[in-house]
Each structure stands twice: as C-alpha cells, then as structure tokens.
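Minutes, project check-in
Item: structure for the 93-residue chain
Input as provided by the requester:
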Amino acid sequence: MNVGIVNVKLRLFGVNSLKEKRSITRRLVNDIKSKYNVSIVETGSRDSRHWAEIGIALVARDKAHIERVIDSITGYIERTLGVEVEFLRKEVW
C-alpha cells in the first residue's frame, strides 16, 4: 500500500465575500472528490476571502498511480477559472 498527500494553497480572484469564497471552494472540493475518488478537505485560510488551503489524501497499490492522480488533480485545479495555485507540496510513500 502506498499513500499520497497533497497540500495546496490557492489564491482566489474576484471574490467579494466569504460566502462567495466558500461556494467556490466547496464546489472545487466536491468536484475533485467525485471525479478522482480521493479524500479532500479545506484545511486553512478559512477566514480569508482571497486565500484557500486544501488537503488531499489517497491510497493505492503503486506510487505511479498516485503520481498520475495527483498530477491530474493539480492540472484540474490550475484550469479552474479564478483560482491560482500559489503553493503545492506533495508526499508519496
């Protein structure tokens, strides 16, 4: 068994309220969770309108599969309008 963990800090553009930010992050989290079958949660910057942090975890038999899924998820996040990846840290064991 191998485990992959990803921490992502996102910069959000065009957000005017915390309610709007939570709507964006909730949609992103739900989309990733359903599309990639991973555990994902908003982990930090909950009171900031312009920043969001999410944590992602997944388990698989081989590291190559985990790397492919992580790369696919980060590509998906980067293609999301109004969201920019500021920091990404991944660990695979």
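Outcome recorded: The first helix runs from residue 18 to 36.
No further action items on this chain.
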